[in-house]
Amino acid sequence: MADIYEMRAAVAKALAHPIRLQIIELLLDKTELCVCEIVKDIGESQSTISKHLRILKSAGLVDNRKDGLMVFYRLRVPCILKFFECLDRVLINDIEAKKAEFSIREDD
Question: Among 16, 77, 88, 103, whose Cα sits 20 to 30 Å from the Cα of 7?
Fold first, then answer.
């Protein structure tokens, strides 16, 4: 059996790209999306989106189904929203702290 830390690292690596994070955010709000809809919403080429979807699928974050020529993707881990909310709170606090620090330096 694969080591849990290796599995976590694979998921973290799959998340480590802005386009893949955008794809996950799109899928959070939908039951499933066709690749063509993801391409349209993100504004990248189909080949780029398909490459990122393969990485997300390989990490177990998304799943897909085919309907004729169309491929639909869905998020397998909707609980990731809680992770993003937690991370966003930390990042926003860091940004606010840096702004406050910058403001204090400006006043000196």
Answer: 88
